[in-house]
Amino acid sequence: MTDWNELSDADFRAQIRAYLEAEYPQHLRHPSHRMRWHEVREWYLKRAADGWTAPGWPVEHGGVGLTPSKQLIFTEEQERLGVARAPDQGVIMVGPLLIRYGTPEQREKYLPRILSWENIWCQGYSEPNSGSDLASLRTQADDDGDHYIVNGQKTWTTLAQDATHMFVLARTDPNAARKQQGISFLLVDLDTPGITIRPIENIAGHEEFCEVFLDNVRVPKANLVGEPNDGWTMAKALLGFERLFLGSPKQSQNALSRLDVFATARGLHDDPAFSDAFTTLALDVADLSEAFESFAAQVRAGEPLGADISWLKIWGTETFGRIAELALQAADSEAVLVDGQDAGDESVDVLTLYFNCLPTTIYGGSNEIQRNILAKQVLRLPG
Amino acid sequence: MTDWNELSDADFRAQIRAYLEAEYPQHLRHPSHRMRWHEVREWYLKRAADGWTAPGWPVEHGGVGLTPSKQLIFTEEQERLGVARAPDQGVIMVGPLLIRYGTPEQREKYLPRILSWENIWCQGYSEPNSGSDLASLRTQADDDGDHYIVNGQKTWTTLAQDATHMFVLARTDPNAARKQQGISFLLVDLDTPGITIRPIENIAGHEEFCEVFLDNVRVPKANLVGEPNDGWTMAKALLGFERLFLGSPKQSQNALSRLDVFATARGLHDDPAFSDAFTTLALDVADLSEAFESFAAQVRAGEPLGADISWLKIWGTETFGRIAELALQAADSEAVLVDGQDAGDESVDVLTLYFNCLPTTIYGGSNEIQRNILAKQVLRLPG
Amino acid sequence: MSAVLSEANPDERRMLADSVAGFVRQGKDNNGVHRARAVKAGASPLDRETWQQMADLGWLGIAVPEASGGLGLGVGELAVVAEGLGGEAAPEPFVATAFAQAVLAGCDNAELVDELLGASATGDTLLAVAWQPAVASLALDELDERLEGGRLTATRRLVQPSGADVFVVAVRDENGLALYRLPCDTPGVTVETQTQVDGHAVATLVCDGVELGAADCLAAGAVGEAALLRGLCVARVAASAELLGLADRLFTLTSDYLASRKQFGAQLSSFQVLRHRAVDLYIQRELMRNALRQAVRAFDSGADLVAVQRAAARAKSRCADAALKIAREAVQLHGAIGYTEEADVGVYLRRVIALAAWLGNATAQRREYARLTRAAA
Amino acid sequence: MSAVLSEANPDERRMLADSVAGFVRQGKDNNGVHRARAVKAGASPLDRETWQQMADLGWLGIAVPEASGGLGLGVGELAVVAEGLGGEAAPEPFVATAFAQAVLAGCDNAELVDELLGASATGDTLLAVAWQPAVASLALDELDERLEGGRLTATRRLVQPSGADVFVVAVRDENGLALYRLPCDTPGVTVETQTQVDGHAVATLVCDGVELGAADCLAAGAVGEAALLRGLCVARVAASAELLGLADRLFTLTSDYLASRKQFGAQLSSFQVLRHRAVDLYIQRELMRNALRQAVRAFDSGADLVAVQRAAARAKSRCADAALKIAREAVQLHGAIGYTEEADVGVYLRRVIALAAWLGNATAQRREYARLTRAAA
Questions:
Q1: Helix axes D221-260 and D75-87, enclosed angle (nearest 10)
Q2: CATH top-level class for D225-376?
Q3: Which chain B residues are Cβ-neighbours of D42 within 8 angstroms?
Q4: For residue B132, what are the domain limits?
Q5: Which of the residues C275, C280, C296, C365 would you substitute to probe the B interface, choosing the one with the greatest number of B C-beta atoms within 10 Å?
Q6: Are D235 and D99 spatial neighbours (Cβ–Cβ below 8 Å)?
Q7: Is-catalytic flag, A208?
């Protein structure tokens, strides 16, 4: 087996690029909305067969064991081609969690099934009344001998309708002094009686999120990860370099390039008003990309990311929003058509750009929360 | 003597316009910064001789006794011609205060001297550490029999260097339950020993404000207006329809028209980028003017102004700021010249526009304070 | 309070506003938002029963002369109804109908105009103006496909409502711009549809050698052009009023949400950043009201065409711009739920996007305003 | 940490930055802010003693080849010094000097170039580039007053420093653009001055039949044009760095003020609205750093002229724009005191306005970037 980490970055990038170009289906590149599992299943099973489900996991657990630097290249190459995301919470969250905190039995049971996509995981964090204040969650897990009895409701659970399992933060000690305490981390099989999954339609007409109702769901204590009441610590510890990708310039770059296609086809670049606005945004994206590279260099050097990474998420998502707004204006009265706008040989879909930008300033910690974080942890302004 | 209120609005406006056009000096029209007393003295003494110092005061106290509607026309006509403001705190604040709350002796002593400009008043409200939180003022007035001994410091006192008297809010009961209580309203002769006036240079190089230091200043109790500890109520009660003028469109209209002169001379209206930006601002000013007229109609109808007037100040000052910023950009590398920019036969001074816009979002209750007021008193958002 | 109530006919307009408010809120199972969701899911925006009720209330004849069976009222009254319908996101083609009626009102084929307006006011005949060329420009001089030898081969884009019984089609002939009546079932006419963001279908009218006789001519030359231009102004003002209604409700939904929802142990409305943003939305709404008020006044006062065009462009640019700002912030301030169909925000947002773009968006209207202003100077 | 430290020569650049920081903060009675106030009050921006110290430290020779008595370093080092000077609002004409030196470095009259650069690096001769025509355009093709028969009658605007001993004047001749040495005391030369917002004098150079001989020609034709264009890039990047220094200090002054000042019984920094606005200024500063870093890298990596022009336009547009935003907000967040000379904010603001406009403001730079980008496509 190749030791990928031995390759130079350039060689590694070239090989990954060649692999993706050869194997990743044309029609799935740069999708305009989040793909469902049935749409990407074939590709991810092929990748699993090739051993590429978990580039970041250690080799002894079935991963590729890439260094952070190589992982970044892998991700960059996927983004370059617009590879659709899988329902990948098992790979991103559950695997690393079990490798670090799980029992041998948990690892043995779940890791291989994550790698093969036999198990597909979703994340049971958010709740209807917790919003950005995750620690205020109210889902309750009561001790019942060798089981917990779980009651509550999760929401904004991405693609729960495609998942077989969900990891859940639930309150096991309602009397804990701080709301962050008394929360435990449970692994839940979605086939367990008492679970109802209801997709939520978003305003663009897609069903990316779900509500998940838990009604007296019996979860074996063997499915507790780590110590009881220690779930919050573990959930926080898992926030790794993935935070970088909340500030990725890819969405903005893609949106700008779609707008460019439209503008070129319609001759808008000859209009100084449009050109000035477009250039302003092009420079906003350029400086975002430069900053992203600078944070990526930190990751490559193995340095941890600080709280300052939050500014990238703010700037990236708000730039995306401004591009989408300019596109909407540029298309004028045609902007309303759901099937997109003619742009020479291509079609550009300004409505999708616009709808896609809307949630980016909300999810992954709303931009208001990110500003709170920066004010406190980076600017250290007394509160 | 003419009963001006008997005239139709149109006739009254025509007469006022004719008077101002004939009498108000050409070189003082539309000044770019606040005029000093020696610059406007001659004009205001002429106006005083003609009986026009105090259009709004009742006739029995030496005013013209105009209705609010006629006062508004008077003000509009002054603004139309760009009549420079006098150090008019005596007319605006002290006169109405004494007419409502003053003793007969106070009225007899001060009102005629205000009308003749023998006394010129300034406002001793703000303090170095009170900022927007005026009620936290710390200037102390200690009871000493038939005098108060006043110690403290006032600041942002407009044109104190030109004034003979200052009205002062001072704390007479430091133990009052609420900080708004225990404040008294005192009339102070600036010749009293212990007073030092120090002009403050602003960043545009002008001296519009002063610091006023009060060091054991003896103020006769005869100079207390109203009841002791009741100063806050009186100060608030005096906020009349003058609040309307914090949201006046005049500054924005003037700035836009200067920018238009520059743009026309330089052919900038042919540049769609400039034209779009200019039109956006022209419409911002137009909608501001429409709203101002709507509030003015309330005043004309004798209705009190509500807290909603605050939005006009926000929109007006921020629109002014955007115009000034566009002017700065439009003048490009010439924008830096303090003597202005050539614009055909005229000269336009974009720097002065820019410097003038800066304080407008701070004074008269900063725009942050105005937003606080709107959120609480108009939107009634629970806090 | 509606923006236009305090000016001409305040009492009548207030009564009308109350009547609209009562109408649109009737029954939770068939209110405006409910019907708008149904349209998004595929239903026709023309609920026949609702449309007939609106006709019976006289709303479809507001700006139709009394002689033609209407109420003979003005743009102010149209705006009152449009604002009220916007407040409940009602999907009915009220402003599109007002557009067609206003165009007709400027035409000089009195008999034909009378017939069409009468049938429109009763709700029996649905009208639509077909005027934008294939590349959906706003400039009338880009309407370059001509009527030749009494036959028209041309394409007209973005026509609403797509299910109109009769189109008022703009064509060029040797005298300039002319307007013709074109029933939807005329031979050679094909109506293709595209779906719009709010679920409404918009039509592309394809005319392939369609015969247009003198009897179908509504107005020609300068009269035809003025009729279309003035109709566009009425439509833009009515759309502005509907945008105000939509934005006003979005603002209320949002401030109510902030006031009722808790996070980090405190009401959302206690966070200063959110309070100030709510204030900024309030200011945007006030600006819309002011821009709309001046536009209605321009009509009320009988201003000339250029003045009315400028006033309409000003109102539409402000209302399109402000409504989009308010709608976008409404989503953000609602958080994740604002991005779902659980909340009503999305229903309003989609309609705002549609109306903001209809007949020229904010950017286009500002250019129109600048053009008219410079031409007048 | 300076934006450009982490790239090429990080250790050397860090030492240089430390040295600048130490220098500019020396003595409260003659630090940068103090000198800047003096300039505003009428003093020359060229404090001879300070200037000599800067020469002695080698800073005036940073980008001057070692053969001409300089250090032979690059734009990165210029940026480090400019950023440091900006941090203390120092008024010395460092970036204007760097501009002239960079133009000279591209000229091919080796002997003359060597002499001027050497004299400039020692601080003995003050240089200034005179290139903008009467209507202060940035486009070189608007330089239409020609050198004819060896004599120049022309006007050059906005020349800095106005007290230069020798001007590098751009002229048109039959071969295109040429650069000449023009000592300030040459017969026929008049130097008129105008005052700039920060108190600096800028010169209008009026040449009335001035004789320019072949011996004074620094470069002609394509070489001359490239020298001027590349020099403009260096100057724009150095100005961007100074803007970063100014903005960074404004940001620090503002966050310190918010953290220290109380109102309504609470620290200003406890108000969420002000916290978030401070964050937005922080983001603007980070953007400046990133834009500057890529520009320095373009020079470090020896990119071609067009690439360097694009990088410089990008840096200058971002830095001008962001610095103005930060400065304006710094005034607002300081409240009334920010509008007075009591605070240092005004000193920084005035310098920001001056530098943001120098050699083309943000709008002009974005147009330049768009032009270069489309030309390259």
A1: 40
A2: mainly alpha
A3: none
A4: 121-231
A5: C275
A6: yes
A7: no
